[in-house]
Design goal:
The protein has 111 residues and is α+β, with helices and mostly antiparallel strands. Helices cover 40% and strands 14% of the residues. It has three helices and three strands. The protein has a three-stranded antiparallel beta sheet with strand order 1-2-3, with helices on one face. β1 and β2 form a beta hairpin. The relative contact order is 0.13.
């Protein structure tokens, strides 16, 4: 397996009113977080924590999660709708002279 580097993971730092601090999180490790009064320190803290976790996992022969950035995506996924919602989507697509797929994709990405 290819070694996953801590800098490939998906980090986010946001303000938490509940904690009265910045909280750093990483999408691929949802149970991990790091609190700090400083936004940059919250990022550095969660980044260092992930690096430590990856080291521990490697030492124990565990496979870390694949970073979202390193995953392959086909560009396809299926969505189930009610028949009524499918009909409305088909009507909207027909009125806009596009396929249902194109209309749904544009709505999903907010275009």
């Amino acid at each position: 397996m290819t070694e996953t580097r801590a800098d490939h993971y998906t980090y986010r730092v946001r303000w938490s009113a509940e904690d009265d601090a910045y909280v750093g999180t990483v999408a691929e490790f949802p149970s991990l977080s790091w609190l700090s009064e400083d936004q940059a320190d919250a990022f550095l803290g969660i980044r260092a924590l992930v690096a430590d976790v990856l080291e521990d996992m490697a030492a124990n022969g565990e496979n870390p999660p694949v970073a979202i950035a390193d995953r392959s995506y086909s560009g396809k996924f299926m969505v189930r709708l009610t028949p009524e919602a499918h009909r409305r989507l088909a009507l909207d697509a027909a009125e806009q002279h596009v396929s249902i797929n194109r209309l749904a994709a544009s709505r999903l990405i907010g275009a």
